[in-house]
UniProtKB/TrEMBL annotation:
This is L-amino acid N-acyltransferase YncA. CDD domains: NAT_SF. Pfam families: Acetyltransf_1 (PF00583). Keywords: Acyltransferase, Transferase. Residues 1-166 form the N-acetyltransferase domain. It comes from Kibdelosporangium persicum. Transmembrane segments: none annotated. InterPro entries: Acyl_CoA_acyltransferase, Bact_Acetyltransf, GNAT_dom.
Length: 166
């Protein structure tokens, strides 16, 4: 797998991965995390992705030239997440292709975030995720070396912040 720097021209890739993720989640009965509408057909979601890209760095994971995952890192979280008193790498977006599940694409992208932090002399990496449903997403990040810190709620959407020291 290769991880390359991305840019605004990768927007369609991100939206396609989001569409794939939403379809998979809906098939699993998870309609609360990201709803039921494909990202590419959701004007608010498209705007949100554009805003995240404008504030962060995009990394695209490829297998044999095919985009199979994306990571967006930034120096700060979304406004609903408590700030910290130190520099950080914040994972603003992590998406992987369900067609390639089991290939540790997400884990390798999270490793990229940790590597970026180390290269920049930053000792904190944080991420937030959906804390509802079965809690599997929170456990996924814990399996990847993150520990739970803060919780938050946006409207009725439960969120969990996790952190990892480098």
């Amino acid at each position: 797998m290769r991880i390359r720097a991305g840019d605004d021209t990768d927007l369609d890739t991100i939206l396609a991965l989001g569409d794939e993720a939403v379809a998979w989640m809906v098939s699993q009965g998870n309609t609360q995390q990201w709803g039921t509408q494909p990202w590419s057909q959701n004007a608010a979601r498209i705007t949100r992705v554009r805003d995240i890209l404008a504030e962060g760095e995009l990394w695209v994971a490829e297998l044999d030239g095919e985009p199979v995952g994306v990571l967006v890192t930034a120096g700060k979280p979304d406004p609903h997440v408590p700030l910290v008193d130190e520099p950080e790498i914040y994972v603003r977006l992590l998406l992987t292709s369900r067609r390639h599940a089991g290939k540790k694409i997400g884990s390798q992208l999270l490793d990229k975030a940790v590597s970026l932090a180390r290269e920049r002399g930053i000792s904190l990496v944080r991420v937030d995720c959906y804390a509802g449903g079965t809690g599997e997403l929170v456990r996924y990040y814990e399996r990847n070396g993150f520990v739970k810190t803060d919780t938050f709620t946006v409207n009725e959407w439960p969120g969990q912040v996790l952190s990892q020291r480098t």
